[in-house]
Design a protein that fits this description.
mainly alpha, 3 helices, 86% helix, rod-shaped
């Protein structure tokens, strides 16, 4: 006895389709391999790009701050420009000594 067309369609939809299962298995396997191989590489390259952008932005700001400090000390302190250089040298020496003391052996 044969099933009516509606019953056959209903029976086909309840059975799992092996082609969908195999396709899902392949896609999941490829995604896992991609996550383990190119995932860390993409993270590393993203970090490199962000570091480069930060360097491009912060380096001119640092130069302008140092120039501004030299000009400020030149305006503030009596004497020639050499006084400003001495003050800046002492400031950088103190910063370097503090950082050197905090290093880990």
């Amino acid at each position: 006895m044969s099933l009516p067309d509606d019953d056959r369609l209903a029976a086909n939809h309840t059975e799992p389709d092996w082609t969908d299962q195999v396709t899902d298995l392949i896609v999941d396997s490829v995604d896992k391999v991609r996550a383990k191989t190119t995932g860390p590489l993409l993270d590393f390259s993203r970090a490199g790009v962000l570091a480069l952008v930060a360097l491009i932005i912060l380096l001119p700001i640092l130069v302008m701050v140092i120039v501004g400090m030299v000009r400020f000390f030149n305006w503030l302190l009596p004497g020639g420009i050499w006084v400003s250089y001495v003050v800046m040298s002492v400031i950088f020496l103190i910063i370097g000594a503090v950082l050197w003391k905090q290093r880990k052996d």
